[in-house]
Amino acid sequence: MSITRIFRGTAMDLEQERKFEQVLEQRCWRYFLPIGISIILFEIYNIIYALHYTDFRLDTRASRVYMVFYLILLTVTVAAIVLRNAISGRRGKEGKSRLCLRIYQVYGLILLFWSACVTVYDQRVSDNLNVYMGAALAIAVLVYMEPLFSVCGFLLAEALLLTAMPYFQPGGMLEHYGTYINSVVLAVIASAISIYRYSTVRSDFQKQELIARQNREILRKSEELNYVANHDALTGLWNRRFLEICLSDQCYGEKRQETAVLMIDIDYFKQYNDTYGHLQGDECLRRVASALNLVVSKGRLFRYGGEEFLCVVPEFGEKQARKLGEEFCRSIERLGIPAADPEKNVTVSVGMAVGTIGEREEFEALLEKADEALYQAKNSGRNRVV
């Protein structure tokens, strides 16, 4: 296993990395602004206090050194907040989250080294590690950094501390042995916390992405199965299974409504199949279904079986239904599909019935009337509405 894999975890594609950076940036900003403002206020207080304590003279070396520390941290904090807001406010700038995240990370390292320098200078009068400890733990907990990045930062800060402290501590190193041990332990703990926090967030994000991807796949397959279950495979029209669902939702119930039922049948389709073959017959069915579907602007069109189609239109009167049936006939004739008789084109006959329905039995009675009307249309010459 590579070092990168150990530190970064499972690899993600570019889009996932961008989303993950957005998550980290939002989490960091949630704490960065209030903490940054607190640091600014605290450094302003320290500056005012130092000036007041020395009567604005800063006549000691220590007061001047601390004043420089205060001004550096104040300037860096203000600059980080302003820069982050400037980058975040740009529209359409790709990689904004990454740039903002880098600002937090660089600021965290600056704060870490700043605290190490302050702690080193404090060794003149005290061997406590409070400033360094507070900054290191806060950075480990609140700033999400890639493990390799954070480990290098903590190691370099600790190296600076171990190298510089002997020059400022009174007495030998043995007198401050505990301070060195504590600083090393602190660096190790802070590094471990930083690695754990980053790895945990990354792992949780990957799990959420996996769940989201699985949910999308389930939804896609569910939609495909739903389509297959409710549509005719050959023509793409609604099938008879969906007819019952549609009627239950729209036609059955206390609200009775006038409904038109049109049964459409392709004329001489058996002869067409015998003449041109079933493959050509299937193509004819597809073309006829497509043309009929284009005519339907209200209601639903179903493949009822074989060469028969059914159109159910709620809130349609007899005049409107007849007009629709005639448009069905004209649209199929205009296709110009050669019939079994080469001198003629494929046509359809339409049986139409209109009535008020509110339950299954009434619809079945209306359907039977439409079927009888279709039979009459066939017997009276075809290519017509009865």
Task: Tag the structure with descriptive keywords.
386 residues; alpha+beta; four-stranded antiparallel β-sheet; rod-shaped
Question: What is the count of helical runs?
Answer: 12
Which stretches of 5+ consecutive residues score pLDDT under 50? none
Give a quick account of the main beta sheet: strands, pairing sense, barrel closure.
4 strands, antiparallel
Radius of gyration: 40 Å
**Structural class designation:** alpha+beta
Counting DSSP E segments of at least 2 residues, the number of strands comes to: 4
Q: How much helix is in the residues?
A: 55-70%
Proportion of beta-strand residues? 5-15%
Biggest sheet: strand arrangement:
2-3-1-4
Question: How far is the first residue's CA from the last residue's CA?
Answer: 78 Å
* SSE series: HHHHHHHHEHHEEHEH
Spatial shape: rod-shaped
Mean pLDDT metric: 90
